[in-house]
Amino acid sequence: MTDPTPRPVLVTGGNRGIGLAIATHLRDAGHPVVVGSRSGEAPEGLDAVTLDVTDTASVDAAFTEAEKIVGAPLGGLVANAGITKDQLLMRMSDDDIDAVLDTNLVGAIRCARRATKSLMRAKGGRIVLVSSVVGLYGSPGQVNYAASKAGLVGVARSLTRELGSRRITANVVAPGYIDTAMTEELPEELKEKYRGVIPAGRFGTTDEVAAAVGFLVSDAAAYISGAVIPVDGGLGMGH
């Protein structure tokens, strides 16, 4: 269904997996969409810009280029870019910690900072930060990842207090186990173990995550801000 108020949106990490599903869903809802990725390659039917969320100059340049493409100030940001470097904490290197936090948390903050300028010029808009059930539920071997994803909740809620009066919302979507290329590589016995603790009894789809993001970007979510929307089949139970 086409949203009544199309708003130009930049989706970071939107060239594959969950990010691509989000970008496609928003495009199909009538929003002008630009994908940001390190390669700068555009998936079929989408515009793209080169974007490295760990580099402020790259973030600034990507937003400027995206606005040239759509011909207007951006009205939305979906901060989806993220990495994992899993290891038990006692064996986790400084590089493992720094890289994950700099990409997943600080990278999202960099993008939100730059997006704020555009959203204020647009006189309103949406920021959606893609977190994970792991951020509040926890997971062994993912201290760095969990910390980075939990931090996004504080970012969204602080932005809500800073920008709420300017018709800008900031929310978090927290996916659980989703069918992606990454989960497809897991051994079948491990998949069964994970499914056994998910009340829904299955992994989610990228389209289900995209639908939640699409709602938060839409006019229907104008009075929702600082919220954490789980898409996890009940695994986190709202943690």
In terms of topology, how is this protein built?
Elements (H helix, E strand, L loop, with lengths): L8 E4 L4 H12 L4 E5 L9 E4 L5 H15 L5 E4 L14 H28 L3 E6 L3 H4 L5 H21 L4 E8 L5 H4 L3 H10 L8 H12 L10 E4 L8
Parallel strand pairs: 1-2, 1-4, 2-3, 4-5, 5-6, 6-7
Brief characterization of the structure:
With 239 residues, the chain is α/β, with parallel strands linked by helices.
3D structure, described in words:
The protein has 239 residues and is α/β, with parallel strands linked by helices. The chain is 44% helix and 15% strand. A 7-stranded parallel β-sheet has the order 3-2-1-4-5-6-7, with helices on both faces. Helix 1 crosses helix 8, helix 2 packs parallel to helix 3 and helix 3 runs parallel beside helix 5. The two termini are 31 Å apart.
